[in-house]
Structure formats: C-alpha cells, structure tokens
Automatic annotation (TrEMBL):
Domain PNPLA: 36-241
Motif (DGA/G): 228-230
Annotated source species: Hymenobacter lutimineralis
Motif (GXGXXG): 40-45
Active site positions, chain numbering: 71, 228
Keywords: Hydrolase, Lipid degradation, Lipid metabolism, Signal
CDD domains found in the cross-reference section: Pat_ExoU_VipD_like
Signal peptide: 1-22
Protein name: Patatin-like phospholipase family protein
Gene3D superfamilies referenced in this protein's UniProt entry, alphabetically: Cytosolic phospholipase A2 catalytic domain
Length: 358
C-alpha cells in the first residue's frame, strides 16, 4: 500500500510536466528553399541586390540550386547562376552604363527602320555583348552555354546554379522556357537577352527550328520571333512546380522549396501581404498622363500574369518606392533606396512567417 501511495504521488507530481510538454508544440521548422524566381520589373529590379543580400545573411541563398527569372529578373538570376555574390551583383548594377545599352545608328530614321523591319527601336547588340562580358568575368567563357553552366553547377554547387529564363514566342503564340533541359546549346547571354527583349524597344530575337539564335536569317529560312517573357510570364513562380524538382513528389503540385521575389507598388504590397494573399488589385490614383500610363500598364500586366492564391505564402513582395519600370539612369541614392526596399521586403516576409509559426 505504501508503494502504491508513493507511485500515485509521483504520478500526480509529474503529470503537469508531462501535460505541459505534450501541449507545447515544437516551433515549425523553416522551409528549405532550393529554387529562387525573380519577377521582371525594368529598372526597379535594382531592388533585388538588397533582397539577395538579406537572403544571404539569413542563410537562405546557400541552399538555392536553381534560379529563374524574367526580363530584369533574368539578368539578376543569371549573375547569381554564374557565381556572382549579392555584393558583386550590387557592384555590377552600380557600374552598368544603362543608357549605353540603347544602341543603334540613326536616332530617328535608324530606329524607325529597325522598328519596322526588326521589331525594335534599339538593336540590343550592346546588351548581348555586355552580358557575355559579365559571364566571362566569372567563368572565363563568354559563350558559356546552359548545358556547360549545368555541368559547372554539378561540379561546384556552392558556386554555380542552373538558370531558367522565360520568353514569349510570338510565332508559336506561347510562353517558352530556356534552360539546359530545353536549349542546352544556347548561350547564357542569349537566354537572358531573349527574356529582356522588351517589345518594340529592343530588336526581337530570331530562333531557327532547332532553337538556335539566328542573327541574320538567310532568304527563305524559317525562324521564330521571340520577345520579352514578361508578356505571358512576368512572374514565373511555377517554373519548378514539377515532380522532377522535388524528390518523392508526384503529379501536379506547388513546390514548397520555391521562393519568389516580386516587385509592386506600396499600395499593392499592403493588399498582397494580408492573410490569404491578394484578393484584388489595389486602387491606382490617375491624376495625369504619367499615372494614366502607369495604371494602364499595371492593369494589363497584372491580369495577364495573375498570381495564383497558393503563390503568396512563397512570395516576397518588394515595394518599388514609386519608381516605374522604364529603363533610365538613377542616382546613387535612388539605387540605394530600391536596394533598401528589397532588404526590407525579405525581412518583412520572414517576420510574418515566424509570427505565424508561433
């Protein structure tokens, strides 16, 4: 009896501890991110430098094995893929002579002729040359192909990553993805150039039926016309929503290992970061011709590239601080403002995630 009483005393004495332990859930583990996707956004893509720095400081960037993007997001993704660090990407952005990329003879007549015959006011050749230079600085191979980059990523995963960019194939009337899986012989520089081929701004890129870039097609040669991926996939967060990118997965699914960087107005970011994500587009104050164009651009682009409800839990929204996507020269303080906003967007995302897991 004495032993039974002692047992009961010990049982009741330990019960609160056992109960408390059972009722205290362990903190949710942070998701492991293997894929990073960056939205197109013109000059506002400068913000990605700060965002990448913050991801690096949090240890997220070290786990990324694949990077994808459209337009301005494609060039940042490419720099990351060939081995640039976030600080080096910021240095490239600060040193890039943006206006010099607007190449082509003849300010008016030359541009108008190219527009009619080659579908772009500027040639875009200087942009391609600059991209090959950037690739060569890290790999010593200006003509590095997507397949060669994949081999480097397999050999040195801590330094290199696979690259995926998007384009809009006007001939086929569809979105197109460029990677070592689809176009192994394509140069990294050309994959980015395609994704940055802003319609009517830069000359369109021509591809032959095998997917090779054709600078000057022969008479009668069949070619496909490809332009900026932002027309149909400005935020291609679904690039890695396939079982081959997640071992053990099967069928259609949303890849939890994908993280996206997205650029939006402050008003839209406030809408999108509410519980449940975006329910509608934020109102746009139209007060003059500039804001009229901005509102027109926004409603068209956002409805053509409407995100899915399930995308918001894996999307980092970055405030564009009132800058429009037009390619133009920005001052050092303006660039810093965008980069600071990128950093703050990442901080806000993880702060919300940590609060939700408590």
């Amino acid at each position: 009896m004495r032993y039974l009483s002692l047992f009961l005393v010990l049982l009741f004495a330990l019960q609160p501890t056992v109960s408390a332990s059972a009722q205290s859930p362990e903190p949710a583990a942070r998701p492991v991110y293997r894929n990073l996707v960056m939205e197109g956004g013109g000059i506002r893509g400068i913000a990605y430098g700060g965002a990448l720095q913050e991801l690096e400081s949090r240890g997220v960037l070290a786990g990324i094995r694949r990077v994808g993007g459209t337009s301005a997001g494609a060039i940042q993704a490419a720099l990351l893929a060939v081995g640039y660090s976030p600080q080096e990407i910021i240095d490239v952005v600060n040193q890039t002579p943006v206006q010099r990329l607007n190449d082509g003879r003849g300010l008016f007549f030359g541009g108008s002729t190219r527009l009619i015959r080659q579908y772009g006011w500027y040639r875009g050749d200087q942009l391609t040359r600059y991209l090959t230079e950037l690739v060569a600085r890290k790999t010593q191979r200006p003509n590095l192909t997507l397949a060669e980059l994949h081999a480097l990523a397999q050999q040195e995963p801590a330094r290199f990553r696979d690259l995926y960019t998007t384009g809009t194939n006007l001939t086929r009337q569809c979105r197109q993805t460029f990677s070592y899986e689809t176009h192994p012989a394509m140069r990294v520089a050309d994959a980015v150039r395609i994704s940055m081929s802003i319609p009517l701004y830069f000359r369109a890129v021509l591809l032959d039926t095998a997917g090779h870039v054709v600078p000057h097609p022969a008479k009668g040669q069949l070619v496909e016309v490809v332009v900026d991926g932002g027309l149909l996939a400005n935020y291609p967060l679904d690039l890695f929503d396939h079982p081959r990118y997640l071992p053990g997965a099967a069928g259609p699914f949303i890849n939890p290992e994908t993280l996206g960087l997205r650029l939006d107005r402050a008003e839209q970011v406030a809408y999108d970061t509410r519980p449940g994500g975006r329910q509608q587009l934020a109102p746009y104050a139209v007060q003059d011709f500039g804001s009229y164009i901005g509102a027109l651009y926004t409603v068209a682009l956002e409805n053509l590239n409407a995100p899915r409800p399930e995308d918001w839990p894996r999307t980092i929204s970055i405030d564009t601080r009132g800058f429009n996507p037009k390619i133009k020269r920005l001052s050092a303080p303006q660039k810093q403002e965008l980069m600071d906003s990128g950093r703050q967007g990442v901080q806000a995302f993880f702060n919300r995630a940590e609060a939700a897991s408590r």
